[in-house]
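Let's practice the habit of predicting before peeking. Look at the sequence and jot down your guess about where helices and strands might fall. Then scroll down.
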Amino acid sequence: MTVDLDTEDRPSSLAHQIEAQTRDLEWTLAHFTFVADVTTLVDECDIAHSPGMSVATCHRLPLPALAFVGESADLLANYATFLMDPGSDVYLLVNEMQRPVVEAAFEVMETTPEWQMVFQGDVDALAPGLAEPLNERDLPAMQSLAEAGGLTMLERDPLAAGAAYGVHKGRKLVSMATTRLQVPGAAEIGNVVTHKDHRRKGYASAAVAALVRALSAEGLCVFLQVFQENAACITMYQKLGFEIVRPMYLMRCVVREAAGSEHERY
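Done guessing? Here is the structure:
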């Protein structure tokens, strides 16, 4: 559902705006959650839009997620009430410029710093080792591995966004990496997890290497998100050829009551 909160009927205005802005890869990466919500994930999202603010909620993940572009905290807070019930918890992953807008718009319960890392290495130097493509037959094993590894954000269908690779020992899937999102020109990888009994053997590096090779072959820029406190993973990704490009912030917030009714709800 897309609600245009401008008084004029301009249903294609957001599409035109995003098409123009996503020609800039740096802008796309800095706003990738919103870009994904209004492009590749649009059928799974609700969107409120006006020239001054665009807000999207995505129903793909088990936790409520919100993304936006715009600079007005008042509009962000107001538009959020179109899409979510006041008092609801919501998660946002935002860049450094967006963080103060979120802090002014919502009651912030928790902020976790992340790094956005972009692959800038030599694809041909990546060693996929024992990693092999995963398919629909591997879904139960992928879900089991995610649960065993404490991965709480695995999508309902972790193969929906693109390629996934894993390492098997015998018939058991012990490590994996998947494509989490695709946006124009780029793909985010994630769900990188290895069973605790098979760590420190290079399996995660092999799965990530194989996935980067596959996505790069499609002409996509490959990036990922990692908690800033996770030094071991940061080191692993840097050895593979990823570089830190910007801080991002995972923020858990509460949607406030609407301050007023400046527009009708559709």
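How did you do? The first helix runs from residue 13 to 21.
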